[in-house]
């Protein structure tokens, strides 16, 4: 009886079509890696180069809109009933926000991103590595990036906790604008685009950072490093997050807290163990000031003459990267924000998200920058020559005391971060598999395991295909293009529905008087 009930509740279109799509992409990447990469890069060239302003304007607009919502009449709306109180303490809530995002990616990029910018001639034009290689990571992982998550978290939180809707899908967020069309073909298309984009985002994440984990394990335990070890690491991560997601929201909350402790330990190891505390903090403080001072210029510079194509290669990519991830994470943030006002959710989301991100980039990134600027280790040159990020990051660890223990701490922290991120994603995308699901109800364990397996297939194919970072970035940029339009639909729908809600509340108060 229970099986029949579950079968009757599932939305098979949202499960089977993405599954077939993932299998097809895996086959294409593994059989024709060179041709697949060429086609993807051609499409990326068009979207990033010719349509780059679309991503840039969307980023600036969404950020400005989120601040407007926080300080307008909408900011006073509580996500839930007037009597509801926050489910989680501020610390637990903040930690879950940070760890449900690309936290493992943040660690990976914190260690090497400054070196990628150091190889760009645009950095020399602006004023050099010391000033700008430490600034751009904060900009690209800063307020605009987080705004994609935060504005949708508010829209979904309002949809779930205020309006009490029981369809936890992207399409449902568009209902106030599209009406009953979301129950038909239009809604199916929106949800399928969302799921494909999410799979592309997760594949990019895994394929970039897992080679670092396998290289670190190879160094610490003397294991042969290769595709086999990388896939073993992927399967280990999948096993951890599958186990945690089976335990439900309590397990996710506990793992998020443990992650934060590991993260703090890694930060302290770099900040104090490396002996560059003053340089790290002063460079970070200067970078924040530099970013704030130049924020509008950085947000709108499009290099019209394509003298360096820096915005197209980096800024556009990052906005697209965050857009593909905002399919699931905002649902999770909206869900755990019950009992908080919209203003508190927006400002708290920015506060906790930026605190975790900036701390990581400032401490981990600026330690590596110190090795190049003060001690003459040409880290950016090594990356330019080999393109091997993992080896270069290991080189940075070699300058620290007890390097093997440090690498082990990095591996454990990244696996824990991956697990909490994918716990949140698996929980949310499992909700997509249902025709209807109440806000306080968790998806069936079998559905969660199904999605946990799907999330791991595409990254394995990409690793076998040995795609470059440029190819992996291209996957994210392509997937994000249609997502931008859907984000706009959801934001417009939120304003329409929130205005209606405030009007209803006003009329009810009049009736009571």
UniProtKB/TrEMBL annotation:
Pfam families: BCCT. It is a multi-pass membrane protein. It comes from the Bacteria. Keywords: Cell membrane, Membrane, Transmembrane, Transmembrane helix, Transport. InterPro entries: BCCT_transptr. It is found in: Cell membrane. Its main location: membrane. The keyword Transmembrane helix applies. Coiled coil: none annotated. The keyword Lipid metabolism does not apply. The chain crosses the membrane at residues 12-32, 52-71, 91-111, 144-164, 185-209, 221-243, 255-272, 316-333, 345-364, 407-429, 449-465, 471-495. NCBIfam families: bcct. Belongs to the BCCT transporter (TC 2.A.15) family. This is BCCT family transporter. It comes from [Clostridium] ammoniilyticum.
